[in-house]
Amino acid sequence: MALLDVHDLSVQFGGLKAVDGVSFSVNDNEILAIIGPNGAGKTTIFNMISRIYMPSRGSITFSGRELTSLRSDELPRLGLARTFQNIELFAGTTVLSNILLGCHVHRRTGLVSELLFLPVARRQESAFRAQVDELVEFLDLATYLHAEITSLPYGVRKAVELARALAIRPKLLLLDEPSSGLNVDETRRVGELIGRIRDRYRTAIVMVEHDMSLVNRVSDRVLALDAGRVMAEGSPEEIRNNDAVKSAYLGAADA
Amino acid sequence: MSRKSDAAAAGPARSGPRTTIAGLLGWQRWLGMVALIALAVLPWLHSGYWLSQLTFVAIYAIAGFGLQILLGFAGQVSLGQAAFLASGAYACAYVERIGLGAPLGFLAAIAVATALGLLVALPALRMSGLYLAIATMSFGFIVEEVASRWTSVTGGNAGITVPAIRIGGMSLGQPWQIYYLSWAFFLVVFLLSANLLRTPAGRAMVAIRDSEIAARSSGIRVSRIKGVAFGLSAAFAGLAGALYGHALGFISPDQFTIAMSLDLLVMILIGGLGTLRGVIFGSVFLVVSPELFQQLIGLFTAGNTEVAGLRPFLFGFSLIFVLLFQPNGIDALVTRAGEWLATARSR
In chain B, N or C terminus with fewer CB closer than 10 Å? Predict the structure, then answer.
């Protein structure tokens, strides 16, 4: 059975069918890219999977559990993590605290043992800290560990958000435009990074992405959307040569 | 394993201004030790006015830690903290007056205030910002009203005397005894708050303050964490209320008005929002500055004339000054001065 199974997913905002009958699935360790012109419904699908929007129809099954009946804060515990298109970090604090927040799902202590900083809380903190150190090394963030988020450049913030999501130790990672706001060189490095994340942390990845060179390089499969519907699905090569996709992208210029 | 890897990870980040940070840490510890020793020996040197004023510095700071957790960490405003102090003060006085003793009285103070805090949290989960401010303020008015009408417990507007603390056969009624008790509780509450900040629940509070959506997607149950913040905040305020009653020996509804809630708010804003040290600076400011200004004015007017409206003027003016020029409060000023001293010394 697939890790993530999206079936007949639809949502309507007023009269607009933002997503209309979309179905796809993601297997363990697979990298799926969702592409499509602006307004095709890519981020909306992400927001439905992560329980920010309520779908008007359809089902989302993750590890055999129906997600539409869960709250968004219950998903990380199941092994589902995400990043945001415009970066959602805890801006008033440091890189370290942000990544430690990702460890929150592994919390085993109660309020009392934390307030008293009992040995169990102490051990947990050093275990969390070891996990953060590992991530920080992997993502080259060590120099920024104690820096405030507001003092950091955009690219570093994206890496911090990624580190926080990885601290959840997800089985599935949703990346909303990992290359947005990055230059060509940084985008190339993000491409390498996504492959390394999959290999190192054994996680499936679904990413919304505009940069076609990045999509072609890292994804196993591509889902092309247009106006809320699935236009095509296949390997990057098949999608590149798909006539409907070509015309949608060319047509998007005058839309 | 952690200690070594901590040092290794911290290494590159701190390698630049290492001397500064090391110097600053040393400087903070030094100041803290001096302050603690001074507080410990003070009752031997002085037993009058300033001893009772310093007792109130500790009491306001305890309530201030509570508000700091709620507002500074979790980002939830409250204009009704006085109600939690009131419920703590009355619960403690009541339990002691019916002869159940001070330990149970203090427990009752904390329990009643915490219960009220959780009660307030229920509607507060659906509100934020201005609406939350108005709701908590209304809650403050309700408790004030209850305190003035529930005569059998509170003595109504006439107030009630608070018996001296008795533990076993020992009486703790002397000002210096209340002083030590208050500072002991201050230390406990400070340590609890510091532990909160470095463990998951406290980090989760800061997270929901900064971005609720990111907090949720990191697996934080926002409503539960807000409830914990309200509960802890009220518990500390209830404890402060119990001490407050004993320090004054008398409580009545007109002590626990919106003015007290505002004092607490101004206190943490001037001291520094979001830091524990800021609470201490704010509390010192709240208690000491009106007195200092009064004496300063006395120097020029050659007399002890009480200047009417000095307190609100001073606090209002300071608040505007802080918001305009020093948004992070006295704490940021002191930190900067400490850094400057440390670098100057290391040069």
Answer: C
